[in-house]
Design goal:
With 253 residues, this protein is of the alpha+beta class. The protein folds into two domains: 8-74, Orthogonal Bundle (Arc Repressor Mutant, subunit A); 82-252, Beta-Lactamase (2-Layer Sandwich). Helix content is 46%, strand content 19%. It has helices spanning 8-23, 30-37, 41-53, 69-80, 83-99, 141-148, 152-161, 175-188, 233-246, 249-252, and strands at residues 57-59, 65-67, 102-109, 112-119, 134-136, 191-194, 201-209, 215-224. A six-stranded antiparallel sheet has the order 5-4-3-8-7-6. Helix 5 (83-99) packs antiparallel against helix 9 (233-246) and helix 6 (141-148) crosses helix 8 (175-188). The relative contact order is 0.11.
Length: 253
């Protein structure tokens, strides 16, 4: 058995706590963190103090915690060096030009995905999302698309254990219904999500695969419902062309 490096456990706990804070749609309070993270109060205080001192989290007036300025700078630096983001940019722009709507590129982060690029619609009414936004797997077009490309055993574990919390009144919270949506995505290559992650917005999502057919991210086309065309193939065709290009083995090398 490999010998554990001194300090590894404490570092892993800090990173896990930081990821937990980042993954929450709303900044969690101390009470929430105590309930959700299974740390003792002294341990949680110590970890939070360490993250605060390094500028990785910030405590708000209501005693909740959000990602700090140093983490934002680190994330921005990482994004500028993201190979998949750089190589995908032209393909994402083409999808936006073909559909006229907002296009997102998302990659895995913790228990969900995070947007690492966004090509804005040229229309005046646009989405509120930003680069760096965390999106749950069960409620978003990119998330369901990513799930559809997981090996069966990993998908089963997710469906049996993930808390399928409602993000909007339209979010799928029944694992059986979610499984049916994922199966449909596997059949047609893309998933359609109507208002499940943001009220008033429909999304078409499809996964990006590596050379071993494993998911490494997902792309979505997001459309305000009042602009959604009856002929939805205009969105899905452009999207599928994009992810086929990005899933090419040459793209990964």
């Amino acid at each position: 058995m490999a010998k554990q490096v001194q300090g590894t456990q404490s570092f892993a706990r800090s990173i896990g706590l930081l990821q937990h804070i980042c993954d929450r749609r709303n900044p969690p309070t101390l009470a929430k963190l105590l309930d959700e993270c299974a740390f003792t109060r002294p341990t949680l205080y110590r970890l939070l103090n360490g993250l605060e001192s390094e500028g990785l989290v910030v405590q708000l007036k209501d005693k909740s915690y959000k990602p700090g300025p140093r983490l934002v700078n680190l994330a921005r630096s990482a994004l500028t060096k993201s190979d998949i983001r750089d190589r995908a940019r032209d393909a994402l722009v083409r999808v936006r030009d073909q559909t006229g709507e907002t296009v997102h590129l998302a990659v895995p982060s913790g228990e969900g995905l995070v947007y690492i690029d966004k090509i804005e619609s040229l229309e005046t009414v646009r989405m509120n999302s930003t680069i760096g936004t965390f999106v749950p797997l069960h409620s978003s077009g990119v998330g369901k698309a990513y799930l559809s490309a997981l090996p069966e055993e990993k998908l089963t574990v997710f469906l049996e254990n993930a808390p399928l919390e409602p993000i909007t009144p339209f979010t799928t919270t029944d694992p059986i219904k979610l499984r049916a949506q994922i199966d449909q995505c596997r059949t047609q290559g893309f998933v359609f999500d109507s208002q499940e992650n943001e009220t008033g917005i429909a999304c078409f999502g499809a996964p990006i695969l590596d050379e071993n057919a494993q998911p490494i991210g997902a792309v979505s086309v997001s459309v305000p419902l009042f602009r959604l065309k009856d002929e939805t193939s205009r969105y899905s065709t452009a999207l599928l062309d994009c992810v086929r290009e990005l899933s090419d083995g040459e793209f990964q090398r």
